[in-house]
């Protein structure tokens, strides 16, 4: 029986690497996968999932207007799909998370979503909020703070490496703009 999975973490925990390994495992067994990534995330090029360790795979793009259920249903009719994998799932809308649950419930295709749980202000992203609520299975991927504790928060940094406390929820960036930290260091740096 298919399930909706949400693998979440702060930045630099290996979400994209894990997604790419899962896709490879399916394809190695002769099964078809469909990989999605957010159109807004163009850090490593458009239309591909890339991990920090240098592996990548082509991906379909989604934006806020993408009807994921209709698109997946259409592709599945042309080529049987065994698994859907979604990178940058925090950028999904509530409606899209619902559509992915329909892929699981009506098309019986497992959906594996990978994304950040919270933003730099420790607020849930829309996609993450509904994946946490509606996923059949949740799994936290772990990374560590510079002090060695588990990092489950992320700080946004300016060009000088100083912490930014306000701004838009979404600003695409990598290690040069974000730092994963533990709760203690998050509160200390944010002045909480």
Structure overview:
There is one protein chain. The termini are far apart. The chain is 29% helix and 26% strand. The protein contains five helices and 13 strands. The strands form four sheets. Strands 5-2-6-7-1-8 form a six-stranded parallel sheet, with helices on both faces. Strands 12-11-13 form a three-stranded antiparallel sheet. Strands 3-4 form a two-stranded antiparallel sheet. The chain has a single domain (4-142), classed as Rossmann fold, CATH 3.40.50. The protein has 192 residues and is an alpha/beta fold.
Name some characteristics of this structure:
alpha/beta, Rossmann fold, three-stranded antiparallel β-sheet
Short description:
The chain is α/β, with parallel strands linked by helices.
Note the run of SSEs as H and E: EHEEEEHEHEHEEEEEEH
Distance from N terminus to C terminus (CA atoms, Å) equals 44 Å
The CATH topology annotation reads as: Rossmann fold
Number of helices: 5
The assigned CATH architecture is: 3-Layer(aba) Sandwich
What is the name of the CATH class?
Answer: Alpha Beta
Chain oligomer state:
single chain
Beta strands, count: 13
- Give the CA-based shape: elongated
Spans where pLDDT lies below 50 across 5 or more residues:
none
Q: What's the structural domain tally?
A: 1
Write the layout of secondary structure elements.
Layout: E1 4-9, H1 15-28, E2 33-38, E3 48-50, E4 56-58, E5 60-62, H2 68-78, E6 83-86, H3 94-107, E7 111-116, H4 126-134, E8 137-140, E9 143-144, E10 150-151, E11 153-157, E12 163-164, E13 178-181, H5 183-190
Parallel strand pairs: 1-7, 1-8, 2-5, 2-6, 6-7
Antiparallel strand pairs: 3-4, 9-10, 11-12, 11-13
Helix pairs in contact: 2-3, 3-4
Binding site for substrate: 170-173, 178
Keywords: ATP-binding, Cytoplasm, DNA synthesis, Kinase, Metal-binding, Nucleotide-binding, Transferase, Zinc
EC number: 2.7.1.21
């Amino acid at each position: 029986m298919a399930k909706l999975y949400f693998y979440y973490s702060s930045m630099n925990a290996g979400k994209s690497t894990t997604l790419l390994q899962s896709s490879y495992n399916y394809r190695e067994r002769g099964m078809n996968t469909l990989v999605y990534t957010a159109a807004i995330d163009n850090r490593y090029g458009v239309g591909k999932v890339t991990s920090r360790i240098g592996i990548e795979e082509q991906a379909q793009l989604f934006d806020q207007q993408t009807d994921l259920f209709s698109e997946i249903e259409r592709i599945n009719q042309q080529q049987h799909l065994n698994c859907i994998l979604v990178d940058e799932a925090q950028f999904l809308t509530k409606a899209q998370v619902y559509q992915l649950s329909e892929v699981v419930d009506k098309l019986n295709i497992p959906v594996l979503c990978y994304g950040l749980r919270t933003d730099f202000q420790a607020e849930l992203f829309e996609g993450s909020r509904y994946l946490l609520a509606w996923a059949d299975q949740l799994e936290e991927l772990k990374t560590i703070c510079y002090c060695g504790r588990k990092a489950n928060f992320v700080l946004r940094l300016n060009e000088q490496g100083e912490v930014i406390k306000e701004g838009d929820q979404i600003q695409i960036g990598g290690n040069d703009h974000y730092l994963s930290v533990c709760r203690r260091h998050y509160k200390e740096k944010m002045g909480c």
